[in-house]
Design a protein that fits this description.
- By secondary structure, this protein is of the alpha+beta class.
- The chain has 16 helices and 22 strands.
- Helix 7 runs antiparallel to helix 9 and helix 9 packs antiparallel against helix 10.
- It is globular.
- This is DUF3352 domain-containing protein.
């Protein structure tokens, strides 16, 4: 129910041509045949946790379905479904159709799954336990499918006159493990006029607002609420603008897939606009995401990430700026760090206004001596005042022994000064051990477009190279690892490299563990991937049973 409401809230007011009776549902979804779904699930479990994870998955299926397993479900045909929308939110109904071998065996399958027989209501209708006590679940067989409807009033959706044939819902060309589609042109005028009701229902489902006095729905206090309130208000404006823009929408889709060859679990969302619509023009004009520090992830990266924070339009920029201004007001006037803190807020505001809030971090190595370096860069517009106030803060408030560790203007790269800080040795945790030990140095620089920090035995040289980095196209988020180099880093730090190999392998290659990419053109595409080999195998191999969702 909740997901249907969320999808519907994205609909807009535009002329439509109604299909023949029964109307084609605006929301449809499908899976591949169950045998492929199960094979891919087992392959994914093997990538994450090996044989123990596969066994845990098989055992959980046996625990839930008994010795007969999926007997009654036709594993060679896809599962399909749809959502019917109505002017009244309480009349929304979701329908899912399971392929069956025969009615008797599928009823027995339902009994095994629900630990109780489906109640025969007569005239071919059965009652099933609902997922939520607020709703009802009903079932009817038709054309070798078991149609299960779910909602406050699920019975009308199972009327023989309105059942949508399963073969019209399945698109064999779509090979995603799961695919859900929203067809904008199938929305009736009545549903479009009811959009305000859907919005209100969504607010109820998610607990309403959370930025009043005291503790909000997100568990935040009054001060925090004042900071986040402007951002939330601008976000609502953005949603309203996009809802209007979606008036030119054709189809939106979400797909989930597992690529066993690359070990990638991916979720992809796409949006297509009607020809010559404002939406299509906006999608076509979408600029590729860049990152001004992206090239800091060099081939010798051990582990690293790069991201651009999502301040890509006027509403999000304006909201973030207002939130930062509210946060700046909370800095105590008599605090000795106020001048420094003020410059941080001022610079962040300038940076957000550019929309290019880039952050990159990486650990590199090992070098010829077996040592590693760490480099971090964050976007910050016009750092001159920040550099000045930071130096004043250190000279005024840092303890004398700490001040001695700083060396101002230790080197220079073009017009940018490089400062250093000598890392103190000893201590319970030998932080500096992998980064050169006694030779470990922290170099930092305030470049015109960002703040850079380097840790390592040759920090100044690495810093000079880092300051020469150039902007390049990049995903919105990318986290990369090199398993073999991580093993060497752990060994250098005094840890057991064998455990690293057990968790993520030992391949000497830079692998994207997680990424998020956004692209435009003919369609807007948002794609998120997770490399299942990079998930800790011990997470599943240490457990004997995994509960099915």
């Amino acid at each position: 129910m909740r997901y249907a409401l969320v999808l519907t809230a994205a609909a807009l007011v535009a002329p439509v041509a109604l299909p023949a009776d029964p109307p084609a549902p605006p929301i449809t979804f499908q899976t591949q045949p169950a045998n492929r779904v199960l094979d891919d699930l087992r392959a994914a479990a093997d990538l994450i946790g090996g044989e123990k994870a596969v066994k845990a998955l098989n055992d959980s299926i046996k625990d839930r379905f008994g010795e007969k397993g999926f007997n009654g479900l036709d594993l060679t045909r896809p599962v399909v479904g749809y959502v019917t929308l109505a002017p009244k939110p309480e009349d929304i109904t979701a329908v899912i159709a399971f392929p069956v071998t025969n009615e008797k065996d599928f009823l027995a399958l339902c009994e095994r799954f629900n630990s109780g027989k489906p109640e025969d209501l007569g005239k071919g209708m059965y009652q099933l336990p609902p997922l939520d006590p607020r709703y009802k679940a009903r079932m009817r067989f038709s054309e070798r499918y078991a149609y299960i409807s779910y909602g406050l009033k699920p019975e009308p959706a199972l009327d023989a006159k309105v059942l949508v044939p399963a073969n019209t819902l399945y698109d064999p060309a779509d090979q995603a493990l799961f695919a859900g589609k929203f067809h904008f042109d199938r929305l009736t005028p009545e549903v479009k006029l009811a959009l305000p009701k859907y919005v209100e229902e969504i607010k109820k489902e998610f607990g309403g607002g959370g930025f009043g006095n005291g503790r909000g729905a997100f568990g935040i206090g009054a001060q925090e609420a004042m900071i986040f309130k402007p951002l939330v208000e601008e976000f609502e404006k953005m949603v309203g603008r996009y809802v209007l823009l979606l008036g030119g929408g054709d189809t939106a889709a979400v797909r989930l897939n597992v690529d066993v060859t690359t070990a990638d679990l991916s979720v992809e969302a796409t949006l297509n606009g009607k020809p010559d619509s404002a939406l299509s023009k906006a999608i076509a004009g979408f600029k590729p995401t860049g990152n001004k520090f992206g090239d800091l992830l060099t081939p010798d990266t051990v582990v690293g990430f790069k991201t651009r924070l999502p301040f890509f339009n006027d509403e999000l920029k304006a909201g973030a700026v207002k939130s930062l201004e509210e946060g700046q007001k909370l800095v105590p006037a008599n605090d000795s760090v106020k001048a420094f803190a003020d410059e941080i807020f001022k610079g962040l505001i300038r940076t957000v206004k550019t929309g290019e809030v880039d952050i990159v971090g990486a650990v590199r190595g090992p070098d010829k001596n077996g040592d590693f370096s760490a480099v971090v860069a964050g976007a910050f517009e016009d750092t001159a005042a920040l550099e000045k106030e930071f130096k004043k803060f250190v000279e005024k408030d840092a303890p004398g022994n700490e001040q001695e560790r700083f060396k101002w203007n230790a080197a220079k790269a073009g017009t940018t000064n490089i400062h250093t800080y000598k890392v103190p040795g000893g201590g319970f945790v030998e932080f500096d051990k992998p980064f050169g030990g006694d030779k470990c140095l922290i170099a930092f620089a305030f470049a015109p477009k960002g703040v850079f920090v380097v840790v390592g035995p040759d920090a100044i040289t690495v810093m000079k190279d880092a300051l020469a980095v150039k902007a390049a196209e990049a995903p919105v988020l990318d986290i990369v690892v090199n398993p073999a180099r991580i093993m060497k880093l752990v060994e250098k730090a005094g840890g057991p490299p064998g455990q690293v190999e057990q968790l993520i392998g030992k391949e000497d290659k830079l692998i994207s563990a997680m990424s998020l990419a956004v692209s435009g053109g003919k369609e807007l595409k948002v794609r998120s991937t997770i490399n299942l080999r990079m998930l800790p195998k011990a997470f599943l191999s240490s457990v004997e049973r995994v509960e099915m969702p």
